[in-house]
Structure formats: structure tokens, C-alpha cells
Amino acid sequence: MNDHSPPTPSRGCLDTPVLKERGQHEVFCGLTSIVWLHRKMQDAFFLVVGSRTCAHLLQSAAGVMIFAEPRFATAILEETDLAGMADAQEELDRVVHELLARRPDIRQLFLVGSCPSEVIKLDLAKAAERLTVAHAPNVRVLNYSGSGIETTFTQGEDACLAAMVPVLPETQARELLLVGALPDVVEEQALGLLEAIGVGPVRVLPAHTKAEEYGVGPNTVFALTQPFLGETHAALIRRGAQHIPAPMPFGEEGTTRFLEAIAAEFGIGADVVARVTEGPRARARAAIAKVSEPLRGKRIFFFPDSQLEIPLARFLTRECGMDAVEVGTPYLTRDILGPDLALLPAGPRISEGQDVDRQLARVRADKPDLTVCGLGLANPLEAEGLATKWAIELVFTPVHFYEQAADLASLFARPLRRRAALRVEAT
């Protein structure tokens, strides 16, 4: 007797056992996220409460000139403060009062801890409450941790947005909330596509200014544009908002499925999405095909770094013809990454967390064509003959949605082209 039942849909890597890694970490700290967040929120100021080391990190990472008026700074705690021997609360209050008096344009002030509170002996949550009362209603003071002991570098954005969610007003309106800091040009593209499809009203988190903020409530639905927003996702759920599971909008396929999931939530069919996106989809496919030739058939290994690894592996395997050997990620939140895991072709090892020594042993044994890793590992691996891609560049470069799909593929193709050119020169 023939079985005419429909075939079981592929589950990709959803059922792949996850290798749990717990060991030495090689990542940037969450303070790094201030570099892009301070550009996104135009009336916000980020005051890092920490040491001179933290000040030097931000100065170097952001490339800020000494005569500039940036929207972040460091309230430096000397050794006596770190030991709990000085009244750091009074000193912090003084710094904040002076800052706000000099910068009346500030409407949101973030106190960012560079060390756990038990290290700096300063409760920034209580300080934020006290300073909010002192400077209300003109300035809202919030706090979050950017400590490298507690966060990886993309978790800084997650902690920042999660701190904002509880203070957003309540609303009963049926609205879409697009969550995640995107470059302005990419955000405009996303909003334009959603408007053309018929989805609205659409709000964004973070908003450019405090005055542009909106409410959150039981009729709010939200879609994440970044896979590392686990705490923000949980905070929005606690406020009653509903998450729209979808692949991250990387590449032509990811962007299309992302838009289809949102459209379906608003009762709009996939045929409408297809009609509206026909031009951008065709451009993205053609552009990806043009730049991804060096990637086809090549093997890639992801060290855990940014939490972008699983959606990027899905894009590179399905749209660029690569083979994933191992896909490591600092944290694997299935409520967020499930749709990407389902699309990622079965085969690679999936690992969560980091144990650098074990992962270095595996990458040396695998000898992939391309290794995605942090800055601290890239040079040693290059010296051993492995082509590498800096993970941090994937966060700072516009890579979301259709118009940036080819740029995303190019970021991975470039090191392979460079390696091929060096071989030619050597001969």
C-alpha cells in the first residue's frame, strides 16, 4: 500500500544536539555597544561608571577627538571608590548635576556600570531612581550593566533596551514594534517596505528621541531585527506584548520570510509581500550571486561572539553555497533563533557558550576555509594559515534587509579573495 501522506517538513538544525561550552571567554565587553547606541538615540547620554581603563576603551573604540562633544563619558572611580572607602554616591550625584547643567539637551541619561555592583560598591539602580526624581520631568535616568564580566559586546544593547521597556507608557493600541538598533538608512528601508505591504502603525525601539516614544501593551506585537535581544524580548513579554517569530532579515530569503511573518500577523497574505518586494528581491538575488562566487563550496567555522552566528550561517549556507562546519553562539535563545535553526541545513556542530582552548583544537582539526572570530583570535589563526573574518565588523556594518544583502556576502568573500591574491603574489 502506497503512503500518500505529505512529507515531513525539514527541521533543519532544530533537533541537532547542542554542545554546551563553559570555559575561558574571548569577547569584547558590553560597553562597546555604546559606540552605536549613542548615535541612534539623539537626546541620550551614556555615563559609564568605571575606571580609566574603561575610558580608554571607549575613547579608542569610538575614535572620539578630545575637542568633540560626544554623548558618552566616563565617571572615573579611583581605587578608594572601588574599595568602598569613599562616598561614591555623592560623587556620582555631583558629576550628573554638572553634566546636566552643561548639556540641557539631554533627555535620557544611562548610567552604565563597567563592573558588577559588588566590585564598585555602588548600586546604580538606586542611583538612577534617586537621580530621576531629582531631575524629573526633563530627564529620565536609567541604568544597565556593560561589564565584561557579565556581558558580551552585543549584550550591551540588549541590556540598554531592556532597561527602557519597563518605563514605556501603557497602551491598548494595535501596533507593530520593530526592536533593535539599525543604521538610519536601513531602518528607513524597513519602514518603507512595511508601509508598502500595508502593515501599520509601526514604532521602533530605540526611538531617536524620548519625545518619539510610544506605549506597550497587550495589543502590541513586536519583531526583533537583532538575534541578541533576549532580555529585551523577555521584558516585552512581561509587559504583555506578543512576539512574532521570524528569521532575522539577513539576505533575500531571511528578509522575505521576516516580512511574511509580520504580514501574516496583520492578516496580509504572502502574495502581497511577493508583489511589493519583487524588485528588491530580484536585485538582492542578482547581487548576492555576483559577489558570493568565492564562497561557493567553502567551509566556514563560527566562534561564539556576537549571537549573529546562527542567522549568518543560515544565510551563507542557503544563499551563498557555503558549508557550515561549526556554528558557535554565546547564547542560544530558541524563542528567537528557532526560525533560523529550522532553516539552517543539518550537518554543522552547534555550540553554545565558549571554551576557547577546546574550540581552537576543533578549528585546527577542521581546517575550514574561513573562520569567523573575535579580534584576539584572528591574528594567531591567520599566522597558522587560516583565513579569518572579524565578528565585530558584522555588527558595525549595515547588513540587514534586501539592499544590504550583497554587502553582507561581500564581508565574507573579501578575506577569501585576499587569501587567493596573496597566493598568486607568492608564486
UniProtKB/TrEMBL annotation:
One of its GO terms (biological process) is photosynthesis, dark reaction. SUPFAM superfamilies: Helical backbone' metal receptor. Pfam families: Oxidored_nitro. It is an enzyme of class 1 (oxidoreductase). One of its GO terms (molecular function) is ATP binding. Binds 1 [4Fe-4S] cluster per heterodimer. The cluster is bound at the heterodimer interface by residues from both subunits. Pathway: Porphyrin-containing compound metabolism; bacteriochlorophyll biosynthesis (light-independent). It catalyses: chlorophyllide a + oxidized 2[4Fe-4S]-[ferredoxin] + 2 ADP + 2 phosphate = protochlorophyllide a + reduced 2[4Fe-4S]-[ferredoxin] + 2 ATP + 2 H2O. Keywords: 4Fe-4S, ATP-binding, Bacteriochlorophyll biosynthesis, Chlorophyll biosynthesis, Iron, Iron-sulfur, Metal-binding, Nucleotide-binding, Oxidoreductase, Photosynthesis. Residues 35-412 form the Nitrogenase/oxidoreductase component domain. Its EC number is 1.3.7.7. It comes from the Bacteria. Its cofactor is [4Fe-4S] cluster. [4Fe-4S] cluster binds at residues 29, 54, 115. Protochlorophyllide reductase is composed of three subunits; BchL, BchN and BchB. Forms a heterotetramer of two BchB and two BchN subunits. Component of the dark-operative protochlorophyllide reductase (DPOR) that uses Mg-ATP and reduced ferredoxin to reduce ring D of protochlorophyllide (Pchlide) to form chlorophyllide a (Chlide). This reaction is light-independent. The NB-protein (BchN-BchB) is the catalytic component of the complex. Belongs to the BchN/ChlN family. This is Light-independent protochlorophyllide reductase subunit N. The lineage of its organism: Bacteria, Pseudomonadati, Pseudomonadota, Alphaproteobacteria, Rhodobacterales. The gene is bchN.
